[in-house]
From TrEMBL, chains A, B:
InterPro entries: APOBEC/CMP_deaminase_Zn-bd, CMP_dCMP_dom, Cytidine_deaminase-like. Residues 1-116 form the CMP/dCMP-type deaminase domain. This is Nucleoside deaminase. The keyword Metal-binding applies. It comes from Asprobacillus argus.
Length: 146, 146
């Protein structure tokens, strides 16, 4: 497996171990992880810290040229918030663990020129399938569904 | 002036007083402010706490039905990140202080059925014009520009 997707999965697993939603992400620049994170809705009572947002926040304030040469890895297809953030910072490439359990704004990203690659990794799929089956209300809250 | 836009402007002014970027926002539900915030890039070294994001984060975890009956006020046209967040939570109405100094993703919001109202309030415009003239590099960083 891609070593950076593996790092994103480790973040997702850490989130699950904390009682949270198992979605993780890493921001990679020049072959190194410069930000990593996972969904913190439960852990921090957060409405905005999806995995991708947490990774970007943990990367800190960065010059535009770094984002524009970075790759964002995420275990799950990015929702509208996270996709909008990818567009804000002009991140040119997103590698997605899976989009079987949730389809995010991949079409919007592609329409704006973002290179989107979907792995559909079985670990990512099984982690989300199990979580959604166990905690459907929490999952619905995270994606703004009733 | 609309009293809620006035509250968003108070948040923007507070951000400016703190040495930050003067953009503020309030989330309104059933005629009451349930979340308020301002851009905290400088104050918290944050890459994701735009004014709208801070207001939503400060509102806390909410059921979908609240977002879907809320109104988001923001002093400036919402960037792709904040617009994506509006779409994630299905916030049906956004009232924007101004879009003269920055045009966000209003077209995307409208294409998804969001009711977008732009006031072009002179206080909002002057606050951003002055800020952008004084700190162009900080402003560019906030919108992912070189």
């Amino acid at each position: 497996m891609d070593k950076f997707l593996h790092e994103a999965i480790k973040e997702a697993q850490q989130g699950l171990d904390e009682g949270g939603i198992p979605i993780g992400s890493v921001l990679v620049y020049e072959g190194k992880v410069i930000g990593r994170g996972h969904n913190r809705r439960v852990q921090q009572g957060s409405a905005i810290l999806h995995g991708e947002m947490d990774a970007l926040e943990n990367a800190g304030r960065l010059p535009a040229k770094i984002y524009k040469n970075a790759v964002l890895y995420t275990t799950l297809s990015p929702c509208p918030m996270c996709s909008g953030t990818i567009l804000l910072y002009g991140i040119p490439k997103v590698i997605i663990g899976e989009n079987k359990t949730f389809m995010g704004e991949e079409a919007l990203l592609k329409s704006r020129g973002v290179n989107v690659e979907v792995i559909n990794d079985t670990t990512c799929i099984e982690m989300m399938e199990s979580f959604i089956a166990n905690k459907p209300e929490l999952w619905n809250e995270d994606i703004g569904e009733e």
